Amino acid sequence: MKVSDVLVKVCEPGRLQAAWQQVRVNAGAAGIDRMTVEEFAQREAHFLALIHDKLKSGSYRFQPARRVLIPKPGIFKKRKLGIPVVMDRVVGTSMHSVLEEIFDSEFTESNFGFRRGRSQHQAIRHLQRLAKEGRDWAVAVDLESFF
């Protein structure tokens, strides 16, 4: 599939609407523009049309994320967290759904990381089955830490 085909799918109005509904359910804090999910909801049709038009014209640009520090449980260190603006969350969710459709079928059954319908509990049960089959090794890779 060509990149242009992917972008056409990302800006489909129905997909953007579904992405917005997911962002709305997830809620979350406001980004650097201080627009809340509730404020976006009040002008939903306007903002979704704006996102669609900007994506279609190629003029959409992601905003910088608002940086906050959140405490790590059990220690005094804090973890950096970037909070995107609501519009970027909608676009990102739409992109995710398109890329998931393209690539998810290519992942192995042993891949549980950040996949719809997969959980850490399922991963543990999968490893337990493999251990019962006599397997001796399991490998987990954290790509962020790897590089």
UniProtKB/TrEMBL annotation:
Assigned keywords, A-Z: Nucleotidyltransferase, RNA-directed DNA polymerase, Transferase
Keyword presence, Transferase: yes
Key word Kinase present: no
MF (Gene Ontology): RNA-directed DNA polymerase activity
Domain of life: Bacteria
UniProt xrefs under InterPro entries: DNA/RNA_pol_sf (IPR043502), GrpII_Intron_Splice-Mob/Def (IPR051083)
Entry similarity comment: Belongs to the bacterial reverse transcriptase family.
Protein name: Retron-type reverse transcriptase-like protein
Source species: Nitrococcus mobilis Nb-231
Lineage: Bacteria, Pseudomonadati, Pseudomonadota, Gammaproteobacteria, Chromatiales
